[in-house]
């Protein structure tokens, strides 16, 4: 299947598949002479596994590490995914039921006790988390649960500062000098704790808009910031394809 066909089948963007290829997470079994990526059934099975891990909150670098281990067992992983997702669904069903009852309560149709108002809220660990730790390692689970903390407070503060600087110029054209200077600072910061090609940087900007989790986190610094960053990052990448990140 071609990349667009896979994207349509799965419900993700072509850019996301290109990004997975660029970071070595999922490369198509064949690339034609004209550059078309062709995905096999094995590739689709791997993609399914990746998306199961993503649904459980694992970051891409950890998914790659886990799936590249010689001891990785696909069947075993599927069974673990099933257990954890069923538990997640159970908890969500309880919260949904509480919401429905609360709506009835506010309408005066029923009377809820204080205990009933909080049924389904459970901030303890998933009962299968320990098993996941044993299978995939503490570090992978810890990063899945709180990957933002892995960067440390100092790095988080620096990231927030760049976000605020970008938010301050988001009313300008994304190709303006002020906007591109702020985008450049973001690109440099990202490359301090990762390795982003310009193409990957451009794809990341696209994900800021396509993935509502990114959009929500970024737009808290200013409405429309995610769209502004996407456009600015694309312009920066296109203009600097032959340059080094430090330039």
From TrEMBL:
GO molecular function: DNA binding; DNA-binding transcription factor activity
Domain HTH merR-type as annotated: residue spans: 1-69
SMART domains per the UniProt record, alphabetical: HTH_MERR (SM00422)
CDD domains hit by this protein: HTH_TipAL-Mta (cd01106)
Superkingdom of the source species: Bacteria
Keyword Aminoacyl-tRNA synthetase included in the entry's annotation: no
SUPFAM superfamilies for the chain: Antibiotic binding domain of TipA-like multidrug resistance regulators (SSF89082), Putative DNA-binding domain (SSF46955)
The keyword Ubl conjugation is assigned to this record: no
UniProt keyword terms in alphabetical order: Activator, DNA-binding, Transcription, Transcription regulation
InterPro entries xref list: DNA-bd_dom_put_sf (IPR009061), MerR-type_HTH_dom (IPR000551), MerR_fam (IPR047057), TipA-like_antibiotic-bd (IPR036244), TipAS_dom (IPR012925)
PANTHER family tied to this protein: HTH-TYPE TRANSCRIPTIONAL ACTIVATOR MTA, REDOX-CYCLING DRUG-SENSING TRANSCRIPTIONAL ACTIVATOR SOXR
Protein name in UniProt: Transcriptional regulator, MerR family
